[in-house]
């Protein structure tokens, strides 16, 4: 289930961050409400359905065909030049390098658009003195605006397949801020466990 939560960037304890957010009513599970909150940050958040059931580990062509219609609409709206499919599962040869790279706070000079075909991933957006956590699951489309500080955790045992869209053929580069903030926030596994504990 997708989850969105709001945290102070200056709060020092990762373990208490979620319960504090929950006390303030700022752990949100309702998709429409998450979308509304994110829209205020310039983030697009939607649910997409595959046109036909997708086999597990479908190849890129099959994945793109299953989402042809919403992809075509998004391409027409934003002029995306390229689309690819990235799959990272436990045992991927570059999993730790890939994980560490995007765990560091960074920005892009173009927006970052991801659709979760399978699996899940945790985005953190850092805006002013606030950190917004967004746990995405299968079926979620998210766009992080250009120049918005963020980081992404695929987890210690990554398992996701995403469609990525780029407005340039050469994709985008990440600008790293060097801010140590990500270390103060839960990993994907820690966040998911804390959210489940809150719901019990
Ligand atoms: Fe990014």
UniProtKB/TrEMBL annotation:
Monomer. Binds 1 Fe(2+) cation per monomer. Binds 1 nickel ion per monomer. The gene is mtnD. The record marks 105 as: May play a role in metal incorporation in vivo. SUPFAM superfamilies: RmlC-like cupins. Its EC number is 1.13.11.54, 1.13.11.53. This is Acireductone dioxygenase. Pfam families: ARD (PF03079). The keyword DNA-binding does not apply. It is an enzyme of class 1 (oxidoreductase). Keywords: Amino-acid biosynthesis, Dioxygenase, Iron, Metal-binding, Methionine biosynthesis, Nickel, Oxidoreductase. Pathway: Amino-acid biosynthesis; L-methionine biosynthesis via salvage pathway; L-methionine from S-methyl-5-thio-alpha-D-ribose 1-phosphate: step 5/6. It catalyses: 1,2-dihydroxy-5-(methylsulfanyl)pent-1-en-3-one + O2 = 3-(methylsulfanyl)propanoate + CO + formate + 2 H(+); 1,2-dihydroxy-5-(methylsulfanyl)pent-1-en-3-one + O2 = 4-methylsulfanyl-2-oxobutanoate + formate + 2 H(+). Catalyzes 2 different reactions between oxygene and the acireductone 1,2-dihydroxy-3-keto-5-methylthiopentene (DHK-MTPene) depending upon the metal bound in the active site. Fe-containing acireductone dioxygenase (Fe-ARD) produces formate and 2-keto-4-methylthiobutyrate (KMTB), the alpha-ketoacid precursor of methionine in the methionine recycle pathway. Ni-containing acireductone dioxygenase (Ni-ARD) produces methylthiopropionate, carbon monoxide and formate, and does not lie on the methionine recycle pathway. It comes from the Bacteria. The lineage of its organism: Bacteria, Pseudomonadati, Pseudomonadota, Betaproteobacteria, Rhodocyclales.
